[in-house]
Amino acid sequence: MAFRRRSFLDGHHQFVTEMSELNELYQEVILDHNKNPRNFREIENADKHADGNNPLCGDKIKVYAMVDGDVVTDVAFTGSGCAISKASASIMTQTLKGKTVEEAESIFNEFHKMVTGELDVETDDHNLGKLRIFAGVLEFPARVKCASLSWHTINAALHGEEEISTE
Question: In the chain, which ranges are continuous DSSP H helix?
Fold first, then answer.
């Protein structure tokens, strides 16, 4: 005789359970990318670069990009910052490699809308993929700037600006 597992959770409790699982995943990913950041290096002779500063938290990063035609062929970062800032920069570099400048700008806009509450990853159409784990940052307004610093910095670099501040 086979038994089927039944959920006795109503809609609210199911949502709370899913949010707890998302928060757990968020913490794991943040810790992993903070401890072992991807593309944490300088790109010598980078086509594009910019410095980013978040004076509120003390995050300081520099992003580097190589652009061939309209495609971001390589992207990396250096600097120091809190776990959220470093993890966001790390995931950003993985996400943008191989994208066109236009796609990178579109992802930047969606990411910014998500962390500022203008885009709901559960109900709105988006192309954020695993970046959606940063949706919870919205609940901590001081951390929005930490999560978005690298994104503002790469956006500035791709538009020829060399410095950006969250202030």
Answer: 11-35, 83-96, 101-115, 141-158
